[in-house]
Design goal:
alpha/beta; Rossmann fold; Arc Repressor Mutant, subunit A; 2 domains
Length: about 220
């Protein structure tokens, strides 16, 4: 049974999320402040975390950053949940390591679909067997490590999957909708700005070598030397 940790200070919402998760066959655990959530994540190692942005004591952004720095929790998929919907808030969420972002108010059906998509992606990632390189970027698929111009780069699981997808299919042009389907496992075209935000963050982390990720105006992205 997959474990989901809900870190949400609105108790009614947390309990509603837990109820719906348990109906879908997940084991759900709720905590209502950032510090306790961080401690429980490190001790229980859930399969996925639903993380509210505005938490008492320790903000969700700080919790997310701490989770990504701890080797025990660095690869746990995180969905950020918040009442804020501005572009800058999405950028901040992805910047600190969130894999997905849902804005309140939301439907439980949407949340369950996002969780299933993220879980499915993590489960079905191909077993890595070799190094891949393009330009000054080297991907160690077995160790989930990326170096750019000789320096190791910290990527979220979604950023790693996106980079690997583009490199394995270098030279091809991919629409934003196709990337949402293949990288995020979304069956329906959603907010394609999610793709743009991740590409921007990925380029920034890679530095100058990241310029090989090309924007195809009005369509999507490709990677080529």
């Amino acid at each position: 049974m997959k474990k989901v940790l809900i870190i949400e200070d609105e108790k009614d919402l947390a309990e509603l999320l837990a109820f719906n998760l348990e109906k879908e066959g997940y084991a759900a655990h709720c905590v209502h402040d950032g510090k306790q959530g961080l401690e429980l994540a490190a001790s229980e190692l859930p399969d996925l975390i639903l993380l509210d942005l505005m938490l008492p004591g320790l903000l969700g952004t700080e919790v997310c950053k701490a989770l990504r720095k701890d080797p025990r929790t660095a690869r746990i998929p995180i969905i950020m949940i918040t009442a804020k919907g501005d572009e800058i808030d999405r950028v901040v969420g992805f910047e600190v390591g969130a894999d997905d972002y849902i804005v309140k108010p939301f439907s439980m059906r949407e949340v369950m679909l996002r969780i299933k998509s993220l879980m499915r992606r993590m489960e079905h990632e191909a077993v890595p067997t070799a190094l891949l390189s393009i330009g000054e970027i080297v991907i160690d698929k077995q160790r989930h490590l990326v170096t750019s111009a000789g320096s190791e780069i910290e990527l979220t699981s979604t950023e790693f999957k996106l980079l690997l997808y583009l490199v394995e299919k270098k030279g091809r042009v991919h629409s934003r909708e196709k990337l949402l389907q293949d990288v995020w496992s979304y069956n329906n075209a959603g907010d394609t700005r999610t793709v743009d935000t991740h590409v921007t963050r990925l380029r920034g982390k890679l530095g100058t070598p990241g310029d090989i990720i090309k924007t195809v105006r009005g369509f999507g992205y490709k990677i080529e030397e």
